[in-house]
Amino acid sequence: MAGAIRVTTESDVEVDPAAAESGEADTVISGRSYESEEAKAGLRSRFVIPAVVAFLVLVIVIAAAIGSISAIAAGTASDADARDRQILNVASGMAANLVTLGKDNADADLSRVIDGTTGDFREQFVSAAVGFGELLAEGGVESVGEVKSAGIVDSNDETAIVLAAVTSTVKNNEAPTGEVRVYRMKLTLADIEGKWLVSNVEFVA
After folding, report:
1. Is this model's pTM higher than 0.85 or not?
2. Are 192 and 118 in contact (CB under 8 A)?
3. Is 180 in contact with 169 (CB distance < 8 Å)?
């Protein structure tokens, strides 16, 4: 006959008296031990699972934060690149305009320069507008300029400095076939209400 097994829920171990007398009580399971293992497993579940969930949430939050920072940095770099491209375009255009003048288009040529400048530098060209065309006509002046290279020395969201290498072919009464001239310009620009304008130009060696 198989041994009698009895699981108790009391703190003490009980044995079936009849089975004990016959010597057949060969296995006894303590209710306290059984419940203790179950309780330990429950405690492990109660603490381990929340800890794992908290860790995963932390990982997700950190990943999201890193992604946001990367996106902001990329956006900032992209904005700076776009700003510098605009600065170079404006500076290059102005450098060419300053040495592209002709007796037949004097007013239009000067207007382009005035429209792209600001401050005292602009006022110099405004003051020179009267009689400018006549002066070019008298000298038979025709000048066509070209920017060979340009680079930003310094820039931020408000101001910029650009160096430009410029050549122009100048024709006048003294050189009717044309004469090539080379210039190196230092242009200072300012952001005026969202538009980049040239505030000064220096010819440098």
Report:
1. no
2. yes
3. yes
Q: What contacts 7, CB < 8 A, 6 or more positions away?
A: 29, 31, 34
Please spell the DSSP secondary structure of the chain, one letter per residue: -PPP--B--SSS----HHHHHHT-----B-HHHHHHHHHHHHHHHHHHHHHHHHHHHHHHHHHHHHHHHHHHHHHHHHHHHHHHHHHHHHHHHHHHHHT-EETTSHHHHHHHHHHTB-HHHHHHHHHH-TTHHHHHHHHT-EEEEEEEEEEEEEE-SSEEEEEEEEEEEEE-SS-TT-EEEEEEEEEEEEEETTEEEEEEEEE--
Mean pLDDT by 10 residues, the chain (205 residues): 46 48 47 53 58 66 61 68 95 96 90 95 91 88 94 96 96 90 96 96 89
Query: DSSP secondary structure string, 35-64?
Result: HHHHHHHHHHHHHHHHHHHHHHHHHHHHHH
Return d(Cα 201, Cα 97) in angstroms, integer: 12
- Separation CA 65–CA 38 (nearest Å): 41
- Spacing of C-alpha 136 from chain mean position: 47
Q: How many CB atoms lie within 10 A of CB 168?
A: 19
Closest CA to 143 of 183, 186, 108, 179: 179
